[in-house]
Design a protein that fits this description.
Low-confidence stretches: none
Shape: globular
Strand content: 5-15%
Number of helices: 4
Distance between the termini: 47 Å
Oligomer: single chain
Helix content: 25-40%
Largest sheet: 3 strands, antiparallel
Number of strands: 5
Strand order of the largest sheet: 3-5-4
Structural class: alpha+beta
Radius of gyration: 18 Å
């Protein structure tokens, strides 16, 4: 139809076919509300739209910043020394996380399904990217997926500010 447009989700709706025992569901929304209930969905929203902390000029996912506010400047000083004031490396050292580590303890076959892992990773990257663009519209903050980053294994998500060496 000419006046009807469907705008696809970040998640491929056909991924439901990869989920064991989900054939009774009509869609992912039905599956999510059945499996997660409201408390799990609230927690998922928090995961996809996390707290962000700025320490000095560095941007971190607060969940990964393992310091209280009092110790934050000491920790930044240690990171600046360790990474020779390389802002990208400092931010990546904190903000890089293996996708598999989000599910430590999960033993179902679903963790062996790369299609599902990639859908989750794409969703994390999408929403974190939107979150930092909303908070810091004038900064070039990069959220990306890559393999084996900063000592993590497998597919990873990371976030850092892209600061060009010419200062522009």
């Amino acid at each position: 139809m000419e006046n009807v447009k469907v705008f696809e989700s970040v998640i491929n709706s056909n991924i439901i076919n990869e989920i064991e025992d989900a054939n009774w569901c009509t869609d992912l929304v039905q599956y999510a509300t059945y499996k997660c209930k409201i408390d799990g969905l609230i927690a998922a929203a928090y995961l996809f739209c996390p707290q962000i902390i700025q320490v000095k000029n560095y941007i971190f996912i607060k969940q990964f910043w393992n310091c209280n506010e009092e110790d934050s400047f000491d920790q930044i000083n240690r990171l600046e020394e360790q990474y020779h004031n390389n802002k990208k490396d400092i931010e990546m050292s904190v903000n890089t996380w293996s996708i598999g580590d989000f599910f430590v303890g999960e033993s179902s076959k679903i963790m062996d399904n790369d299609k599902i892992i990639i859908q989750f990773a794409n969703a994390i990257a999408y929403f974190w990217d939107r979150r930092v663009k909303e908070l810091f519209p004038d900064r070039e903050i990069v959220v990306k997926l890559d393999n084996d980053l900063m000592g993590e294994f497998g597919l990873c998500v990371t976030m850092y500010e892209d600061v060009r060496s010419d200062g522009k």
